[in-house]
Amino acid sequence: MLRESAWLDTLRQLQLNNTHYWKHLQTCLVKTDDCSNLSKRFKTLKQYELAKLIPIEVGCCRPPSVCGYPVVNASYYDLTFHPISSNKDCLLYKIRKPIRCYNCDSCKVFFHVLGFGALSGALTEAKDKL
Questions:
Q1: Which PANTHER family does the entry link to (predicted)?
Q2: Rounded to an integer, what distance in angstroms lies between the CA atom of residue 33 and that of residue 20?
Q3: What is the DSSP letter of 122?
Q4: In the chain, how many domains are there?
Q5: What is the CA radius of gyration of the chain?
Q6: Pick from 63, 54, 59, 53: which is nearest to 16 by CA?
Q7: 36-87 pLDDT, tens per residue?
Q8: Structural domain containing residue 19
Q9: 3-state class (DSSP) for residue 125
Q10: Which of 8, 19, 38, 106 shows the smallest number of beta carbons within 10 Å?
Q11: Beta carbons within 10 angstroms of residue 22's beta carbon
Q12: Residues 27, 122 contacting (CB under 8 angstroms)
């Protein structure tokens, strides 16, 4: 069983590092509106800060907390501040809807850790919204 698990982990990693594959998934993620809905779900900064976010919201919708960007509201971080971390995801994050942190390792790891069931769910949800 351990060998199969290691093989699946390697396969997932190869697929997530495949630019074409990830671009297709990224397009589907944007269509799910998970990130856009944060500002609708959390009307105040306090609500957002106290919320228990799902992994896709943590990894794909906002910059990693190690970046130290000040939170203005659920969908806006003040990127005029220089990140306090050398984490490359800090520079990849953008506020614009089609970018967010979808190219960040913190987003890709969500699918790697949770497996392709999460991937399938995101793709199905995006397809249903088309």
A1: TETRASPANIN-8-RELATED
A2: 21
A3: H
A4: 1
A5: 15
A6: 59
A7: 889 999 999 999 999 999 888 999 999 999 999 999 999 899 999 999 999 9
A8: 2-129
A9: helix
A10: 19
A11: 18
A12: no
